[in-house]
Design goal:
Helix content: 25-40%
Strand order of the largest sheet: 2-3-1-4-9-5-8
Strand content: 15-25%
Amino acid sequence: MVILVTGFEPFGGERVNPSIEAVKMLPGQIAGAEIIKLEIPTVCRKSLEIIGQAIEREDPDVVLSVGQAGGRSGISVERVGINVDDFRIPDNEGNQIIDEPIFPEGPAAYFVNVPVKAMVRRILDRGIPASVSNTAGTFVCNHVTYGVRHLIATKYPGKRSGFLHIPYLPQQAAGKKNMPSMPLGLMVEGITAAIWAVVETREDRKEVGGALH
């Protein structure tokens, strides 16, 4: 099995993005799967173009993207991507898209096709905070969650994709009042655990993981 794991460049005035820093530290093989690492720009369309080129080049079985979610206290395994760009801030090339579909011909939403709850359980079993998330936001992380799933549905049937959100690093949270963070080593361990679940799980766990709000 080949798994393409992507992480974003810094954005929003931050000097570092934990997603690409964690991805860089992943081992080259996890649970027998080859891990291919890719940095992508925090830019709409261009991020998907680069992932699409990597899919053509590497022919991965799974694309697992990782992004920064400042303010969240644990690792979030995203369940769904929605077909809208509604950027609260500009991306790294100044695009600030408001209320536009990512793919006009696409459905309103896609569920990811990786074992979300098994991934959460694996991370929790390592003693690392984790949960199912039902929103990847409406910025470039959701753009990639939805966009990669759409690429797979329309061009690469049989492949799978998913998305993980990770918190700020401690050095990012240091200047922000009451802001949660997570050490880089724990992020790497959590992503590794999630990949183990992707490799080994054929049918997702049936357990509580929903939210009241």
